[in-house]
């Protein structure tokens, strides 16, 4: 047997066996891990799931101390009918936010599945986003002198801006 | 001498001896003290230098590690080590800079409370995060790739560009995005590369202090240290450059370079050049009017009382960090009511525009003008054309400047009868929020290779501009509104022209938010109303803001000149010199129009008359030089231009023409000097590129010749590009007439033979003919 086919086989095997870009983790379209890590005060593990052809997905960033940031984006077929359902996640405790997407609200539910977590729910055109934050600072009032519009923590507002901004 | 006197003298001597001894002791101790402390002071200075050097070394090391980390995954699509192309942003050290090297706005805001408060609501702090910007730049990132966004973000988010954040799989924490142009971006710029724009700054490593030798100390320092050395803080963060228009040119001038569009250099906007060509720069001898020198900062950073504590205030006055201009959208979106109110106030202040309902043209061609100064009569059923002149009177740049494909400035013209019923209305807002497409709008229409409007500010697809109806600084435009007075009209008719402004165009707002967004503010910048009686119209008194009649004629002449109506322009300027025989510029304007009309010898009389009234008038000399050139009087031509340059060394026109004159006189060295000087004023001047390419080649400077030649080729207009404009105009008959300088807005129906059927007028808009 000639050595040439063997060589080709070996090279092919090398390529097949090497860790290639094909195996790269999908990236979150609305925030990179470094930025999420900045908010969660440390390195984060990220998982992107539920990616659809419309580009919808859910990104989850987890910090080593239990902090968590989840960004879920969904395209709505009938915005006027569907979006109230998203807003209902905050219900009557919703705080209306200015300058985040088309519209947005924030709340920290004291019961239910998201008890103790911060929710920021909003939309950009026909796409809804639900941001869930679990971190020590979520209930903090704004401290920065730059805060002139929303009564939520500096980082929460910044996260919401990052997400909505990427969706425009 | 008595004993009393002797005693007094003895006491005095004793006292003097003691005092002298005491003084000597003090002097000796002082010297000893100085000597004793000298080595200590040297140690202190040495220690400061060491501390500074240590901080610099630490910063450099941290930066090196950071840059290596970022470089490992950075997309160097535009060449190795090239971090900002297609933008021009540059940084000292020429590699990535950590975002946290920039002290945050919060840090500055602890002391500079007034600056902070204003900045937070300003366009600069919101330069990146707004939906109005993100919508466009996101399209660029999604369609071409995030690396191309370095073009836009070199100005909109310099920290992101210089930190290496604009790459696929970015490893940069973008928590700084919300601060856009933060304090320490502007206050770290060390110089501007040229006046080419696109982020033409050179960023230094941010420093809030210099040491006693003036060396910049990177990083934060304790507040106490700043308070102890305010002068050193000031030296670190303030430079004379920041007060110059050239500083603003770094970003308020932009082009679309080949690496962005894969096509060729296209000039995008030129607010800096427009200012330089305006009367406010005092650098251009060719302006129609004159004014005191006013920089960009003079209008957009006016001093006013500081309401919050700020050490930067002088005598309680603080240079505005709101940068008030036309953008109402950002404060409206974020709910910055204070900024919104001040922006509206700014737009309405300053006597920026003059609206002149100048005259009425009857169907017979007879012109009644100027209205108010001329008695006339009107008949029911008559078709009239209202000649409306809008003067860009006191804006230091064009109306509308910069991104005029997104901004919406237009004329709303209406005619109503005595009962308030509309006879004619142009420039109205439709129920869906869209502007009447036939409105006279100070806009442009960039088009792509499909001949379609470049929507969403996708500037990288622009290949041509179908038309541009902006009004340059100091110039005027004539807009003609034609309508029929109702046959049964009895009472007076009221005609009103307004200039309205909306930030942004409704269709773009719809693209950003969908159709269900709230209505964005429309600001009436200026307005003028006149009443027309059916029957006799006597002479009336002018209103406070009306121009004098000679200036009204002058503005009409300027409008005609820009609309290529030379005969009418000369007639208008003739009225000017009749009313103001002492006004040299009136005669120059006649000369200038004749030159544009290529009647060079006819131009001479007006120009010589102007120089008779105002010897050494640079404007008249400039135009006379062109006449001398045509007449073959080369020495006179050069002499005139030299006189112009002696008065206006930064006149790009005079430099260009003198360069050409020298070239024709075969004085290559002199010609080169002029073209090089021209290039220093305007790096994009085509004549400079072309002629320098020739001159350098002749002088054996092949590399420089090649460089100039390449720049000429890429910067000159693609001769095939107007085809795309024609395509667009063919597809859009409703607005195609806007590309014709002398178009008429009318509600009269169009007929086959071009004659108007006056029997069936329409109220709304109709079309332009």
Account of the 3D structure:
The complex is a heterodimer of chains A (168) and B (769). Chain A is an alpha+beta fold and 168 residues long. In chain A, 27% of the residues lie in helices and 26% in strands. Chain A has a 7-stranded antiparallel beta sheet with strand order 1-2-3-7-6-5-4, sandwiched between helices. In chain A, strand 6 (118-124) and strand 7 (127-134) form a beta hairpin. Chain B is of the alpha+beta class and 769 residues long. Chain B has a 6-stranded mixed beta sheet, with helices on one face. In chain B, strands 14, 15, 16, 20 and 21 form a 5-stranded antiparallel beta sheet that branches. Chain B starts with a helix and ends with a strand. Residues 1-9 and 29-45 of chain B have low confidence and may be disordered. The A-B interface holds A 27, 31-32, 34-35, 37-39, 79, 98-99, 101-102, 124-126, 144-146, 148-149, 157-158, 161-162, 164-166, 168 and B 105-106, 109-110, 113, 116-117, 120-121, 125, 129, 131, 134-135, 138, 169-175, 177-179, 333-336, 512-514, 516-517.
Quick gist of this model?
The complex is a heterodimer of chains A (168) and B (769). By secondary structure, chain A is of the alpha+beta class.
